[in-house]
Design goal:
This protein has 325 residues and is of the alpha/beta class. 52% of the residues lie in helices and 8% in strands.
């Protein structure tokens, strides 16, 4: 910390004379009462709403799904309290294709186009960087009012694809499906029985502390973040299930089994929290099927196949051509 402080002091001392030189002419020109130009010195891109990407989004996202993906910088849509940058054109193009192929069309396949068009959020805001929090974590995405999702880290999409399906899932797709679950819950509340299963052990923001970052399966949670509250618990159960292979999911559940040894050296297995996780899954599955007509296993199969298509280069993520009628 001391080293960083010294660097900042050195930079400040170096910059101060330059600032004084810069400020002096400004004061002088004010004294002369010269007429100020009405033209802003900040030049923004003008009339860029008809780029090939915008036309592609209108044709394949906005018109069929009534969903607007806002990839260009809009200060009114950026969440306050975070240092963020705009999404790049190239990365926004890639991620827009992924949203279409691995989210919209996957839900079309699993629950039908009517479900997707009626319930999927009507606005997705692309943010170039992650949103870093004071507790040492960073926010991948958030949802608001059942209509809008902020999706951060867009400018890292190429490196995440290169790292494989698990990385792409954890950084983007799981986030989208997690936030979509919140939106569905806002429109139709999930069962009270779900909240009752581990109602006394939610820990709010402490989920990211060293105490709670490990061993959460043996407390009845599918992830560390699920310990925050019942709503996050429900969304984590759904989003992790549909973005995990059966083998990965089973591996997570097995960590909930508590194994001990008695005085005679016999192994004893306690399935208490394993069973709680199974009960949570059953409730999430029933909610999605009965309330929304969504088969979670069909959704998982579709997502797995589509994600493999993306990471293996079988989907052109840069194609912005539009058929001519």
């Amino acid at each position: 910390m001391r080293k960083k402080s010294n660097i900042k002091e050195s930079i400040a001392m170096a910059i101060l004379p330059l600032l004084l030189l810069t400020v002096s002419p400004i004061f002088s020109s004010c004294d002369n009462e010269d007429e100020l130009s009405k033209e802003s010195i900040i030049v923004a891109d003008k009339d860029i709403s008809n780029t090939p990407l915008d036309l592609w989004l209108k044709t394949y996202i906005l018109e069929p799904y009534n969903l607007k993906i806002e990839w260009q910088w809009n200060g009114n849509e950026v969440r306050l309290g975070y240092y963020t940058v705009p999404a790049s054109y190239e990365c926004a193009t890639i991620l827009a294709h992924i949203v279409k192929y691995c989210c919209l069309e996957a839900y079309d396949e699993a629950a039908g186009p009517v479900f997707t068009r009626r319930n999927f959020p009507k606005q997705i805001i692309f943010v170039g960087t992650w949103e870093y929090n004071n507790n040492g974590t960073y926010t991948l995405g958030t949802a608001e009012g059942g209509k809008k999702i902020w999706l951060a880290g867009v400018n890292h999409v190429k490196e995440n694809i290169a790292q494989g399906a698990a990385r792409l899932n954890s950084q983007y797709l799981k986030t989208i499906h997690h936030e979509f679950t919140h939106i569905l819950n806002q429109n139709a509340p999930y069962q009270v029985a779900f909240k009752e299963l581990t109602k006394t052990t939610y820990v709010a923001d402490s989920w990211s502390s060293d105490t709670y970052k490990v061993g959460y399966q043996q407390r009845g949670y599918i992830s560390a973040y699920a310990q925050a509250n019942a709503g996050e618990d429900f969304a984590e159960m759904y989003s992790i299930y549909v973005t995990s292979s059966p083998e990965v999911w089973d591996g997570i559940l097995e960590k909930a089994i508590i194994t001990t040894t008695d005085d005679f050296g016999n192994e004893i297995k306690d399935y208490t929290y394993y069973n709680i996780l199974q009960q949570k899954l059953d409730l999430v599955r029933a909610y999605m099927h009965k309330t929304w007509g969504l088969d979670m296993d069909v959704m998982r199969e579709s997502l797995t196949r589509r994600l493999n298509d993306v990471v293996n280069g079988r989907v052109d993520l840069t194609d912005l051509t539009i058929p001519v009628n």
